[in-house]
């Protein structure tokens, strides 16, 4: 008989194997993920997209219990500063408290992807482990407590000021697109000469695609050496 090992268990085993080499084996004290300057967090969130978008977007900031609205918007976009637990499950920097990732979600993503971010954040701040967060998200999706992904869900990540991790640093300006689970090569991701990067974000559920672009949100050009 073939034994099927649950994804959450596989993640737990993989995470345990990485702990010896990871400087972030578990969540740091929750205060390290917060920003004391609320206005500074709002301003940082707005750097994710061009001002024609971000000036009219709703902005959410992280508080001890989760994300809360800090500025109202009129265009259906939502900007925020993501923390480490929105990384892919199994990422060695999943609990890196230094990560600050400005992002602006378009309306389809606000309706159907942002709830995942809010749920993952609430679970992290409640002290759940990475494996427990994955299991809870999968359960919520199975029970339809979280919405199915809407076609066209995407986001802007064009901030010069963001810090996406110890390896990525400030990285490069890029757009993110989400799709129900699919082969990344069906979008040309990872193909020779293709600028697109793709991979699973929630194992067995969602595929995320990233397309680097040439300019930051302030209009200045990206530098290939800049990270």
Set out the fold topology.
Blueprint: H1 7-19, H2 38-46, H3 51-54, E1 58-63, E2 66-71, E3 78-82, E4 101-105, H4 107-112, H5 114-125, H6 130-142, E5 154-157, E6 174-180, E7 197-202, E8 206-212
Parallel strand pairs: 1-3
Antiparallel strand pairs: 1-2, 3-4, 4-5, 5-6, 6-8, 7-8
Helix pairs in contact: 1-6, 5-6
Features:
single chain, 227 residues, alpha+beta, 8 strands, 25% helix, disordered N terminus
The stretches of 5 or more residues where confidence is low (pLDDT under 50) are: 1-5, 7-15
Distance between the termini: 49 Å
Cα shape: globular
Radius of gyration: 17 Å
Mean pLDDT, all residues: 91
Specify the structural class.
alpha+beta
Percent of residues in β-strands: 15-25%
**Major sheet characteristics:** 8 strands, mixed
């Amino acid at each position: 008989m073939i034994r099927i090992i649950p994804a959450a268990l596989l993640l737990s085993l993989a995470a345990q194997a990485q702990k010896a080499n990871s400087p972030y084996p578990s969540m740091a004290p929750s205060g390290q993920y917060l920003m004391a300057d609320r206005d500074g967090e709002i301003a940082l969130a707005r750097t994710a997209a061009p001002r024609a978008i971000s000036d009219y977007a709703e902005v959410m900031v992280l508080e001890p219990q989760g994300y809360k609205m800090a500025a109202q918007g009129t265009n259906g976009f939502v900007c925020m500063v993501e923390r480490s637990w929105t990384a892919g499950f199994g990422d060695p920097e999943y609990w890196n408290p230094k990560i600050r990732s400005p992002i602006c979600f378009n309306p389809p993503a606000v309706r159907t992807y942002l709830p995942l971010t809010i749920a993952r954040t609430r679970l992290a701040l409640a002290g759940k482990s990475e494996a427990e967060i994955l299991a809870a998200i999968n359960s919520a999706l199975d029970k339809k407590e979280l919405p199915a992904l809407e076609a066209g869900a995407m986001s802007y990540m064009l901030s010069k000021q963001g810090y996406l991790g110890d390896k990525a640093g400030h990285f490069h300006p890029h757009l993110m697109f989400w799709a129900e689970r699919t082969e990344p090569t069906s979008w040309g991701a990872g193909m020779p000469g293709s600028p697109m990067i793709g991979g699973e974000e929630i194992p067995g559920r969602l595929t995320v695609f990233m397309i680097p672009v040439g300019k930051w949100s302030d209009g200045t050009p990206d530098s290939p050496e800049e990270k």
